[in-house]
Amino acid sequence: MEAQVRRLIDKDEIVDLVHKYSFLIDHRRDELLDLFTDDCTIDYGPGVGPVIRGREALARFRAERTADDSGGFEATSHHNANVLVTFDDADRATVMTSLYAWHKATDGPNPRLWGYYHDVVVRTPEGWRFADRKLRIVGQEDFDDVAWHPLRDD
């Protein structure tokens, strides 16, 4: 019974990690970096930029996008659902989360996208953290010039 309760607590903490990411990205909070391992990889898609390797690279990526208008938005609203957690072992899990994201552009249309985050999370001394995050897109509006990873590699 103790192992089952631990698993439920772990799952709840992982789901909170997913939701915390969306809250922090929408509110442009620097604590977002704390949700990732030092050696994380993040791949938002080839049209967004190269794969981000490491927490320091993520900090630089975020700073570059907010320092100018080369892809930054006035506001974003990320919505998660259907968070599926599969434990690989006691300290590692695969997480699939459906996503709807609305972006308020500085001018022009407000782009939207639908897709999934494909994540690997690991237990650290500080709690569960993203080790690998990849965005896969099902559909989009007004992101026509951006190359995305498709939902499936057929």
Features:
Nuclear Transport Factor 2, Chain: A; 154 residues
SSE topology sketch:
Blueprint: H1 2-26, E1 36-43, E2 52-53, H2 55-67, E3 75-89, E4 92-104, E5 112-124, E6 127-141
Parallel strand pairs: 1-6
Antiparallel strand pairs: 1-2, 3-4, 4-5, 5-6
Radius of gyration: 16 Å
User: Architecture in CATH?
Assistant: Roll
Largest sheet: spatial strand order: 2-1-6-5-4-3
| Overall pLDDT score | 93
Order of helices and strands: HEEHEEEE
Largest sheet: 6 strands, mixed
| Percentage of residues in DSSP E strands | 35-45%
Secondary structure class reads: alpha+beta
CATH class label: Alpha Beta
Number of helices: 2
Strands, count: 6
Globular, elongated, flat, extended or rod-shaped: what is the shape? globular
Give the CATH topology: Nuclear Transport Factor 2, Chain: A
From the N-terminal CA to the C-terminal CA, the straight-line distance is 41 Å
- Please indicate the count of domains: 1
If you had to describe this structure to a student in words, what would you say it looks like?
This protein has a single domain, classed as Nuclear Transport Factor 2, Chain: A. Strands 2-1-6-5-4-3 form a 6-stranded mixed β-sheet, with helices on one face. The protein is built from 2 helices and 6 strands; from the N terminus they run αββαββββ. It has helices spanning 2-26, 55-67; strands at 36-43, 52-53, 75-89, 92-104, 112-124, 127-141. The protein is 25% helix and 43% strand. With 154 residues, it is α+β, with helices and mostly antiparallel strands. The protein starts with a helix and ends in a 13-residue tail after the last strand.
